From TrEMBL:
Residues 121-461 form the PhoD-like phosphatase metallophosphatase domain. It holds the Pfam family PhoD. InterPro entries: Metallo-depent_PP-like (IPR029052), PhoD-like_MPP (IPR018946), PhoD-like_sf (IPR038607), PhoD_N (IPR032093), Phospholipid_Metab_Enz (IPR052900). It comes from Streptomyces telluris. Gene3D superfamilies: PhoD-like phosphatase, Purple acid phosphatase-like, N-terminal. This is Alkaline phosphatase D family protein. Residues 11-108 form the Phospholipase D N-terminal domain.
Length: 492
């Protein structure tokens, strides 16, 4: 077989991290996506042509060129075409020899000083391949959005059997997937499996994405250099290096995000005209180890230690400095795990999750105090991880329902993780009673559409009826609004 005797664009195309004059364009060559090496040479590079156009028929091509897809980068391409028009929709495609990729649609951000009348974004997370179909992503692809926030758990590290778990395939998957990921080849192949899904490809091709990770891109509940299973640090850092490398290769990220061994600076900031500032956080790489283990515990001296951090000191300073210099109407913090307090039961001695910001209350206090000092009036936190839809009011004192509301948090449910889910989880009444700032709670699969304008933010919580069989319809289960300058949630 010559290198490109088969279609190499089996994993689709993607774009991301839009700036006013640029956006990252991505693809990965994989003529045989379910084979180690993807059917391509282990050395060298393949030349790829690319085009960026003002129309989807490519009659008005504004940028074009060639790029290398090196074997050393898993035959991926990361382009950063500059000099584009702000707030403009473009279409792009790639060619390798006689093969042409699917067409992607993308959009640049508005000028820094632009008065943006309105914008719409998707919020998604947690797409475990073997726990359901990506039905929600197919619907997301058809939404009218300016961009998508993906806030963690793009892949999962678990073994996947030949039937692909809940997908129950009749054509078996290769045995290669039936083990946990540890090596660079493991992680590359896991991305190839996920990205072979047509609905994930459609969602990438339809919108530019801002991406950040959570834990499963490496290992469940890891914290900095600490493995969940307390593996030797050097062994875990080697695994983290492999995972970070594969993550960068497979995401629409720029060169500055290329990892150096087990280190990758993923936190970064974007403007969206005068309407919004986006701060994307990394709450995994720099955090202190979870107090009292990874689960739910009653807070105590260990979790309440002021020295504990979920962001690391440098990222925390960067975030607070960004609050101080922001002139945007909305300060949007896109990150991984529940920011608001979530008690398991009513009463002062309730357990909370040590893996969320509840396990790092000093970090949360410092962020909220810094936002207050900076005069941030419109704080919006976008979150994933929990496999539920939640709408929270961010309180000055979560134990006092009458304390000031400092912002709002939209926590989006999973794409597929957790199988079909249910409208009212078993703890629905208890959770609402224990957390009066929790205004909405739903455990079905789906995504959130976040609409921003200078006067308000609106979250439309979309759900699908199930994911263990394909083709479920989508509906809006609930919508909540918060007014600019008067944070708080009301049902729309």
């Amino acid at each position: 077989m010559t290198p490109l005797s088969e279609n190499p664009f089996t994993l689709g195309v993607a774009s991301g991290d839009p700036l006013p004059d640029s956006v990252v364009l991505w693809t990965r060559l994989a003529p045989r996506p379910h084979e180690p090496g993807n059917g391509l040479p282990a050395e060298g590079a393949i030349t790829v042509q690319w085009e960026l156009s003002e129309d989807d028929a490519f009659r008005r091509v504004v940028r074009s060129g060639t790029a290398a897809a090196p074997a050393a980068d898993g035959h991926t391409v990361h382009l950063d075409p500059c000099g584009l028009e702000p707030g403009r929709t473009y279409w792009y495609r790639f060619r390798a020899e006689r093969w042409i990729s699917p067409v992607g649609r993308t959009r640049t951000a508005p000028r820094a000083d632009a008065s943006v009348p309105a914008a719409r974004f998707g919020l998604i997370s947690c797409q475990q391949y073997d726990e359901g179909y990506y039905t929600a992503l197919g619907h997301l692809a058809r939404e009218d959005l300016d961009a998508v926030f993906f806030v963690g758990d793009y892949i999962y590290e678990n073994a996947i059997d030949a039937r692909a778990g809940a997908r129950n395939y009749t054509e078996p998957l290769p045995e290669f997937y039936n083990h946990w990921t540890h090596t660079l080849e493991d992680y590359r192949q896991r991305y190839a499996l996920y990205k072979s899904d047509a609905e994930l490809q459609a969602a990438h091709a339809a919108h530019p994405w801002y991406v950040t990770w959570d834990d499963h891109e490496v290992e469940n509940n890891y914290a900095g250099d600490v493995s969940q299973d307390n593996d030797p640090v050097d062994r875990f850092r080697a695994r983290r290096a492999a995972a970070y490398r594969a993550y960068w290769e497979n995401m629409p990220l720029r060169g500055p995000q290329r990892p150096s061994g087990p280190d990758l600076r993923l936190y970064r900031r974007f403007g969206y005209g005068r309407l919004a500032q986006f701060d994307l956080l990394d709450t995994r790489q720099y955090r202190s180890d979870q107090a009292y283990g990874d689960g739910w515990h009653i807070p105590g001296p260990e979790s309440q230690d002021p020295a504990r951090t979920i962001t690391g000191a440098a990222q925390e300073r960067w975030l607070l400095d960004g609050f101080r210099t922001s002139t945007a109407t909305w300060n949007v913090v896109a990150q991984q795990v529940c920011f608001s307090q979530r008690k398991e039961t009513p009463g002062a001695s309730s357990r909370v999750s040590m893996d969320t910001w509840d396990g790092y209350p000093a970090s949360r206090d410092r962020v909220l105090a810094g936002a207050g000092r900076a005069g941030v009036r419109n704080l919006l936190v976008l979150t994933g991880d929990d496999h539920t839809h939640c709408a929270y009011e961010v309180k000055e004192d979560f134990d006092d329902p009458d304390s000031a509301t400092l912002g709002v948090e939209f926590l989006g449910t999973s794409v597929s993780s957790g199988f079909d889910g249910q409208e009212r989880p078993e703890d629905w009444e208890t959770a609402r009673a224990a957390n009066p700032h929790l205004k909405y709670y739903d455990a079905r699969r789906g995504y959130v559409v976040v609409s921003l304008d200078p006067e308000r933010v609106r979250g439309d919580f979309r759900t699908v009826s199930g994911v263990t069989t394909p083709g479920a319809p989508v509906s809006t289960a609930a919508s909540f609004v918060s007014e600019a300058g008067a944070p708080g949630l009301r049902e729309a």
